[in-house]
Design a protein that fits this description.
This protein is about 40% helix and about 15% strand. The protein is an alpha/beta fold. It has a single domain, classed as Thymidylate synthase/dCMP hydroxymethylase domain (Thymidylate Synthase, Chain A), CATH 3.30.572. It has a 6-stranded mixed sheet.
Length: about 325
């Protein structure tokens, strides 16, 4: 048996999740404290996975960090030195040498580039059922005393229904920070890149969470269980906020991957629209604000990422 959530986007799913957890969750012990978890796996299906930014003001997600981490992953990185600019807590998950053992991006692209391989499989045969990316390495992950192991373990792609669909399997999924926070951004960005590369629109994104839980020692969890976020401030619906396409027209996915690597080096000259018009202004604005400088608000994009960043900053002015 599985439990299911079918949602338009992450905001819709985030709202439904707390009702489901409150109705089906039982308290269990974990190495990180008590958790509330249903007895069965949960499958979340996103109908519009490109609507990936969570706007809920009570959750107060750092959308820029989620985006920067996704681009860091596409670059194939596993060292936290660059990423820590956007989240000072991220080194907690790193080994003494600064690398994150379970980093998805490094596993996607090194030593074997699974992104290129999956695109090649689907270009040659759109009916293939063998377009699989793997993030769990049993020979490494079942041994050792690592600070971080991959929670998401495999990704399946298919081109059924004239669109690029994606199913992600997850062994352990924290619904506050992972499932409806970081993971939906990371995985849907990957899906959009591969969809563009094979010439198809994005289809459904299905997240299979074998252990779908929330930590009860987190005050936010108690708050959302007591007062679930009805509607969850879905600006895609309420304000007609639009997602910015990751790739446009004849832009090549290889150029986006190259841009991600250049981006981490601090460059501002990019070949793809998204990196030039969204990623660079948000990176620069975030770091300028963090250093106490004056943000050039006119440069902030008006898409979903820009709206989320602006409101995140506004909440800190009022605090």
């Amino acid at each position: 048996m599985t439990l299911t959530i079918t949602a338009r986007n992450v905001n819709d799913a985030f709202s439904s999740a707390w009702f489901l957890l409150g109705a089906t969750g039982v308290e269990e012990h974990s190495r990180n404290g008590p958790v509330l978890v249903p007895r069965y796996p949960v499958v979340t299906t996103y109908k519009r996975p490109q609507e990936r930014v969570l706007f809920n003001s009570r959750r107060d997600a750092n959308a820029v960090f989620h985006l920067m981490e996704a681009l860091w992953m596409l670059a194939g990185e596993d060292n936290v030195q660059w990423l820590r600019q956007f989240n000072s807590n991220i080194p907690v998950y790193a080994e003494p040498d600064g690398t994150i053992h379970g980093a998805y991006g490094a596993r996607w692209r090194k030593p074997y580039d699974q992104i290129h391989a999956v695109i090649d499989v689907l270009r040659r045969n759109p009916e293939s059922r063998q377009a699989v990316m793997q993030m769990w390495r049993a020979e490494e992950d079942l041994e050792g005393d690592w600070r971080d192991r991959p929670c998401n373990t495999a990704i399946y792609f298919d081109c059924r229904g004239g669109a690029l669909n994606m199913t992600v399997t997850c062994r352990s999924n924290d619904i506050l920070w992972g499932c409806y926070g970081a993971n939906v951004v990371h995985m849907s960005v990957l899906q959009e890149l591969i969809a563009h590369a094979v010439g198809l629109p994005m289809g459904e994104y299905r997240q299979f969470s074998n252990n779908w839980h929330a930590y009860l020692n987190n005050p936010q969890v108690r708050d959302f269980l007591d007062t679930p976020p009805v509607g969850s401030e879905d600006y895609y619906v309420d304000r007609n906020v639009q997602p910015h396409p990751l790739l446009q027209g004849n832009e090549r996915y290889e150029h986006l991957l190259e841009d991600c690597a250049y981006f981490l080096d601090g460059r501002t000259s990019m070949r793809t629209h998204f990196m030039r018009d969204v990623a660079v202004p948000l990176r620069d604005a975030y770091l300028t604000r963090a250093s106490g400088g004056a943000v050039e608000w006119a440069r902030i994009p008006t898409c979903d990422w820009g709206v989320a960043f602006t409101e995140w900053c506004d909440r800190r002015k009022k605090a």
